[in-house]
Amino acid sequence: MSQANVIVVGNEKGGAGKSTIAVHLATALLHGGAKVGIMDLDLRQCSLGHFFANRRAWVAAKGVELPMPVDATYGDEGVALAQASDEEQIARFEATFAELTEQVDFILIDTPGGDTAVSRLAHGRADLIVTPMNDSFVDFDMLGVVDPVTLEVTRPSLYAQTVWEARKQRAASAGKALDWVVLSNRMATTEARNRKRVSDRMQALSRKTGFRMGPGLRDRVIYRELFPFGLTIADLSAQVRPVPVSLTHVAARQELRALMHFVGLSGFSGEVLLAAQ
Q1: Around 235, how many Cα atoms within 13 Å sit in the side-chain half-sphere?
Q2: What burial class does residue 271 get, using C-beta atoms within 10 Å of its C-beta: 0-12 exposed, 13-18 middle, 19+ buried?
Q3: Of 66, 98, 126, 177, whose CB count within 10 A is highest?
Q4: What does the pLDDT look like over 53-75, one tens digit per residue?
Q5: What per-residue string of b and e applies to 238-268 under the rule 16 or more CB within 10 Å gives b?
Q6: CB contact at 8 A, 52 and 69
Q7: Which residues contact residue 273 at a Cβ distance below 8 angstroms, ignoring those fewer than 6 apart?
Q8: Residue 17: closest CA among 188, 165, 161
Q9: How many CA atoms lie within 13 A of 26 on its CB side?
């Protein structure tokens, strides 16, 4: 078996910022000198694949150099593959995954906002699962069920059970523990009224299901502005500056450094995230 470290960015709800987290993890790892392979299991949307396609186009047009991943996303084939049987999708995943493991240090997999057979398979291959969520009981419902009167946590929800099964599968197949982190993502810069209540329930649920809670990325304009160019704050420099920047991009870099540290990848955050170009 390859020693490639497998990172799965997943939950079963859209809108929490999975693809934003995925592209930032990937670019930070690339700038840290890692060889990164990317897979996108959201076959119709393919945000991760589109991001790096835009990156290649922007770099070519501007004549600059930026690190690139080994792109194993399905591109135009994704829509057709989405209509294929589970068996065919799993076969393609297995072939792509096996090919990547021989080439890279990290395999980063973005997953769809729903339950699929191939997504469950990917979760079972993970060394690290990263689950972003907003400070909302709508997002919390993906992880746990609360009593409608007391708001006390009554039981884990379906996605938490999916991760639990992935943990058992990973332990049985590879004898390794699976690390699960839940990120408070897309947080508004002002304090939300219900944030403490959600946070308290998250702490209670984490003790039951074994995930770690950590910082994600705030809801900043700079993240949205850079996305269509295929760029992140890890890429900004004197040569790479497609939009006006200010002191807020320094804070954004610090957020990404904190994220990389929390998920155990601080060794790849590198000087590029320390710089304030």
Answers
A1: 27
A2: exposed
A3: 126
A4: 999 999 999 999 999 999 999 88
A5: eebeeeebeeebeebbebbbbbbebbebbeb
A6: yes
A7: 28, 31, 234, 253, 254, 256, 257, 260
A8: 188
A9: 32
Burial (CB count within 10 angstroms: exposed 0-12, middle 13-18, buried 19+), residue 183:
buried
Number of residues that make up the chain: 277
Per-residue pLDDT of 3-48, as tens digits, reads: 799 999 998 877 778 999 999 999 999 999 999 999 999 988 899 9
| pTM passes above 0.85 | yes
